[in-house]
Amino acid sequence: MNIAQISNSIKSLFTLTETPAKKVPGPIMAIGGLQRTGLSATRSSAKIAEVLAKHGIPTEPNEDGSENKTLVEVIAIVEEIFRALQEDANIQVAFKPGDFAILSEGTGEGVIISNGTNINFPTGTGVLI
Asked: pTM of the entire structure?
């Protein structure tokens, strides 16, 4: 398989989605990302319960006082999805060579200044919290 075929295969994977995600500027991600509250199974389960109630699906305890199994199921699903995202998910980042994602400046002897950018495919990892 040559590089053109590999590229076409990758492009075909992305045609399944309607529109690409909006790019978030680096400074906003770096500063704003730290201010996010993180995932909460409790908060998400409560929001799902609100939506279920709006659609007439009972979310309160049963008439006999027993717990509502619908909510038990929702909580179990949300907790497992969040556990999988936080413990099993893998976040990877890559930049194309020369896309000015990584800039550097160095000095030599005297007043010599050297500027540069990435010449390979730098990668990084992240943690979903």
From this structure: 0.63
